[in-house]
Amino acid sequence: MDHLTVTAPGAGQDAVLLEDVTVTLSAARTAVIGENGSGKSTLARAIAALVPAASGTVTVHGVDAEQDVKALRRILGMVFANPAAQSIMPTVREDVELTVKALRDDAGRKLAKDEVAGRVEAALAEHRLTELADRPCLSLSSGQAQRLAMCSVMVGQPQVVIADEPTSLLDGRHRRIVADRLLGGAGRGRFQLLLVTHDLELARDCDEAVWIHDGRLRAHGPAAQVVGEYERFLDQEFAGEAAGQPR
Ligand SMILES: Nc1ncnc2c1ncn2[C@@H]1O[C@H](COP(=O)(O)OP(=O)(O)OP(=O)(O)O)[C@@H](O)[C@H]1O
Asked: What ipTM was reported for this prediction?
């Protein structure tokens, strides 16, 4: 991101959601942390070219995010905070199939029918969705929908995965499974991960972290260091508020 500023139309003048963010994210796993409303999702959406930059640029693995959205879609997958908004097709299997059908082999050809079917079943099994494969997407629980969203993105083998609160709706077991798949996959070099999260334990497990505060980049560096700084900030804020409360 190079001097990236994102605004939204407001009453009178535009609201500034992100202001002059310049940062290069090259770690395999980068956590994005910060308080509610600080601009984390806006940052994620700007990288995925889902919100326009008012000024500045975003370049993802050499692709200008705003100028070449088609190329960006080929290399970047995003799992949204609201998974219900992500599934497009009627059933779970069809939703996963949609992504696989869009894949091309090294020669640029569509995949053969049995290759598509094989990859779909493997992905469903990997994400523990086999038993739900024929269910309507709309009938899934929030956690199941979140796992489907992950599956449909990961099966596209993106070079970059942006996951916005991917574990927020999951029970303890599935939180660990999804976290392991994201952090483990990125750790093994299968893709680069940008993980927007309030789960500071997960953030600490990343290689680096960026802290967004009030729409600005407050810190970027080794995850343990940035998460530590953020925790101390939260402690101070809480202590200040507690002290100000009438007894
Ligand atoms: N389209 C919009 N118009 C006006 N304000 C917006 C718009 N989109 C986001 N905002 C505001 O921008 C700020 C940043 O929102 P964003 O969703 O990026 O925060 P966040 O850090 O992801 O928060 P959370 O942790 O609560 O998910 C918030 O104050 C939000 O209300």
From this structure: 0.96
